[in-house]
Amino acid sequence: MLVSSIARFNAITNMGNAAMNMMNASNSMMSGLRSHTFGGEHNLEMLHELDKRNSLDLASNSLLYKLSYLQEKAAAKRQALEAKNNKLDVLA
Length: 92
What we know:
Elements: H1 2-36, H2 41-85
């Protein structure tokens, strides 16, 4: 039961980290658009590279978030099954 609790906490932590990274990538995209949009042709190439990198960051962090969500869901199911199978009668 302890192992499934640790797995759930790790999955929740990974979900939070992925959500924060998605927000940072989105903010970076928006600030890049504001500061580099009309700077000249060489800046348009840089803008394209920034957009490509930030889009990949968003996609990979979105995938990481979804995987972590599924891991947390599986760990919760396993934890509930372990609790059901290992009922302990404890008298206080």
